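Can't paste images in this forum, so I'm doing it all in text. The chain is below; anyone willing to post the predicted structure tokens underneath?
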Amino acid sequence: MSGILAYLAASLLYGLIGWYFWRTKWKASTQSMDGAIVASGWESFTILIPLTLHGYTLYLSIFAGAGLSFGIGNAVSSIVWLTALVYWLSSFFYRLEVLQTLVAPIAAVAVLLPLLFPSLRPLANTEFPAFTAHILIAMMAYSLLTIAALHALLMAVVERRLHNPSMSSVQVNLPPLLDMEELLFRIIWVGFLLLTLTLISGAVFSEEVFGQPIKLTHKTLFGFISWGVFAALLTGRKLYGWRGRIAIRWTLIGFVILLLAYLGSKFVLEVILQR
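Text version of the structure:
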């Protein structure tokens, strides 16, 4: 019973924080001298409460029995939790208070997913260190590239406003486009390096368990395609100065392919086929 209350409390607090930031950051009419809406000290730490509860619910659901329970619900919830955590940590270095308004409602739904889509069976092969490292690195990579996708969508909003200055103050309160673009590529670089380590650690795990370097599966194929998309984006940025709409499109394409690589296959197997 206490576990269910933790899920509900985390969801409610995420929702309240999202509503509060919407009212005070996105729709506020009073801005600081440089155009930024500055969060007070206590506001910066409010999201720690639902983040802590969210982490506790993940602990309850992932370590529910023998082995690790890591179904579609726990996977999505973990990625969103890490995304919210990275956003919160980044807010101390970048002006991201406004962007947390988008993360909080998503987290309010994601924290409940382990209840709606419980794991059908414990994850196999968790006794292998290579596999455990592979999961941890993969979750961080997915989380950072999720943030990159959110950034790309918001950059599209900001760019649209540049061509339509009459848009509402909701768009006015977003960070400058150049700042968001600089942060976008920093996030993509770190996410790309972690995705590279994910693919390498997956090959090590496959060698350790199956005795072959890697198995060509749907997840592996889409994982390498996504890696290629992000590699092309970073190369284009370095050699040709890609930015703006080109960067946004390539980021979103890479993220969608990565989403299909892992969560797509898990959704089909666990939710549709019940396997």
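Residues 1-73+86-122 form one domain. Confidence is low (pLDDT under 50) at residues 29-38.
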